[in-house]
């Protein structure tokens, strides 16, 4: 969307920047003159996008100086949510916020301060560093629905999560609840190239998605029934002799126990639960096991099914091990943490948080795997083998719904303050009624954001944050990869915006943490991070301009040299780590959080199966709704419904409809499509209306079409391993909106 500008004119510099509108951080070339960005384009030398930019990346200039951007710190002067603000200087905001936090710590303890984050939209290690120095264990992200549980379950079994795919020589790829055809342009481009070379593609998705349309095998299972499919695949691979006998014999523990465990989990057993035929189930197991090497690409769906999630992750992990698709050419790689540069975990100052404070982490008494009890056990093993631990900022978190409940009911203690960074919890966290009540009730709240979101509108202070072109970026898979991709600022932040590092550092220094923040700028911190690599550079920007990437030489079969980072030194199909934490050592079958078999009376009232939380272009979570060029592409919310189901309910294409669960109801427009099962409803996520009043109670229409109104975070609906809540596999009903319901909208 850049205008036709002469980029060869005198004084134009080319800055190697990045897109910051999803976690892929695609490379951007920014043409800058006199401190202003004239034009942007995709960087053809950047490995992820190779010069391409999607519709999100192309709106960077519209985002940069948008009239709705927050440019100066704002202090609430009216009642909460009234929409009355005073503009104050940055230094004053830091001093006043710091004074309030110190007062809360003095009266209620450091644990009474919590922080909420998004998904890799900030300098996350600096947030954890601040919280550790302050003394609170209660930081969390929305990533309970996005990779944290998967990483920790798989690390318990293999000693690291094999999230890096060596797809160049892969013969089979499973996309499990992932749709890069709509959400990940660079990834889909590479997949199509590999398919042309003969790679098989299996897509597991209840919708006939853009990616499913390109699949060799599409498995449209019932939402939330992924565990039954995975267990049946294990059964087929074992009892039909498709497993890698050498790898299992030499590298795995617990095969005999596993075989006994899955004896009855046949494709015929799974067919009723998954809505697939036994033949479809067998076809998937055969295609994966008989086309080696192969990959299973992580997708968010399993992280979002609630109660059966942890067991499903365990079963899916076992599939890799049974087929020997671990750390071999063309398979899923165990890279481990980088031995060459400082990892995020090494920057977090986790040793500064006292043990007695770690024990106060909310949720650690129930959801042990991704809190200090499980993280400490797993970190001990990884340090023995890899020399380093996973990043704590993502893998060791307070349980978000429990924090919101602690604000309201004081259990296990009262949370008095919430620092919100790079997220809009009202629209992105589960069970919106709970979140909204908590944000209204919390004594003190600060939000760091680009925009006045529904969450920001309820805050005491709103802090302006620098955008994509105003910040440097290091991408390293949430601090867990052995490689890094580096990008620089195109320009210094406009107005009085700062990047997230500045917020946490400046706030920490205002509270007496100066000695623990030796880096004046985030570039200084990044230079310290990469300095051990030994490049002949004198600054971070010089590294970006001359090198930009660090990829270590690829080593396969590392387990032959060092073993696996587990107590036995082998892949633990029968997991002693999970057993020691009080979880089943083999994956038990657990039905979907709500389902027609276990909940027949509920199914009579709510006969359809709901899947929510799907990402869709051009938005990312609840972002970009203010930008007219983006909003033009998708200006209203849509839900998918099969034409046969719609006909039964007298719903026509484009009708506004109510989607209702036990938790509440929302309205979206009906999109009639044959690409979804007649018993399944699919809703878009993130929707709110920034063009409406941002004052309470309207708050940008944050409840009207927000799919998280429908979801559940009740403890007995959450995954017992991690506490991830249920966005998918729920029961719902759908009916047409009356004309009276649309008045004024």
Low-confidence stretches: none
Major sheet description: 7 strands, mixed
- The portion of residues forming beta strands comes to 15-25%
Strand order of the largest sheet: 5-4-17-16-15-6-7
Helix content: 25-40%
Globular, elongated, flat, extended or rod-shaped: what is the shape?
Answer: globular
Mean pLDDT, as a whole number? 94
Q: Output the structural class.
A: alpha/beta
Terminal CA distance: 31 Å
Question: Compute the gyration radius: what is it?
Answer: 25 Å
Count of beta strands: 27
Structure explained in plain terms:
The chain has 745 residues and is of the alpha/beta class. Helices cover 30% and strands 17% of the residues. The protein has 27 helices and 27 strands. The strands form 7 sheets. It has a 7-stranded mixed sheet, with helices on one face. A 6-stranded mixed beta barrel has the order 22-26-23-25-24-27. A 4-stranded parallel sheet has the order 11-10-9-13, with helices on one face.
List keywords for this structure.
alpha/beta, seven-stranded mixed beta sheet, six-stranded mixed beta barrel, 30% helix, 745 residues
